[in-house]
Amino acid sequence: MATALERITALPGVHGVFAVDGRTVLLRFLPAYLTTESLAMTGPALERTWHRVVELGVQVARMVLRFEESILLVVRLETPCFLVTWCRAGVDLDGLSVLLDDLRPELQALVRRPEGGAGGGAKQASEGGEHERERSGSSGGSPAVTLTAEEKFFLREELARHVGPVASLLLGSAMKVAANREDLVRLLAREIEAPLDRGNFLQAVWAQGLCSGPGEEEGGES
Questions:
Q1: Tens-digit pLDDT profile for residues 44-65
Q2: pTM of this prediction?
Q3: Which residues contact 218 (CB under 8 A, 6 or more apart)?
Q4: Is-cis flag, bond preceding 80, omega within 30?
């Protein structure tokens, strides 16, 4: 009989699945090139995003993070544990959601007593890594800060080093509310919990010349 993780990943368009509690990966069934360390970075960012939606008075059953070529379907198994399913764009989300509801008791048992420990049982896959670009956010409207494609890619990749796959979502949201590039970078840096990691992110951005660093004269936006 197939396990819960095997049944999920057997669905057409599903790359893999993992569960994260804070910064602890409780289970994973994913391509091996996705490291457990990188997955652990998603936990705090997902928690903050979930709480922000709840603060708006929205009853959250799931979050769907859409990118150009892939989707992250996020459900809360139990506080504070998230189950994240990584899918191709165009996956049958309704069918996947029904399956996750059916498998919830088995999945909850797995995260309480994970088999093989964190990071065990990685699913091998032939697909290579994707450079994903964020689609337009749910709030609509044009970004308040404009960036070139290269600048967006750099910021997204640097942020992803510290917060994981939700970097595209955070970047798109910040671009809609930031007053200028310096404000944008500050908003993104606030999403990184560890002070050392936050400092490394800021140093990388300053070195790239995307905004002025401490003690530098702030230039105007082009």
A1: 888 888 888 888 888 888 899 8
A2: 0.56
A3: 182, 211, 212
A4: yes
**What's the topology of domain 4-112?**
Beta-Lactamase (3.30.450)
- The vertex-160 CA angle with 154 and 163, nearest 5°, equals 145
Rounded mean pLDDT, 139-159: 76
d(CA 98, CA 24): 26
Domain with CATH 3.30.450.30 in the chain: 4-112
Confidence of residue 140 (pLDDT cuts 50, 70, 90): very low
Burial status of residue 126 (CB atoms within 10 A of its CB: 0-12, 13-18, 19 or more): exposed
Provide the 3-class DSSP secondary structure of residue 178: coil
- The candidate with the shortest Cα–Cα distance to 96, out of 88, 85, 106, 107, is 85
| pLDDT tens figures, 202-212 | 999 998 888 87
Question: How many C-beta atoms surround the C-beta of residue 127 within 10 A?
Answer: 10
Cα distances (angstroms) measured from residue 188 to each of 24, 185, 213, 221: 22, 5, 15, 18
Which helix (H) or strand (E) covers residue 78, if one does? strand 70-78
Q: What is the DSSP letter of 128?
A: P
Contact criterion met (CB below 8 Å) for 6 and 28: no
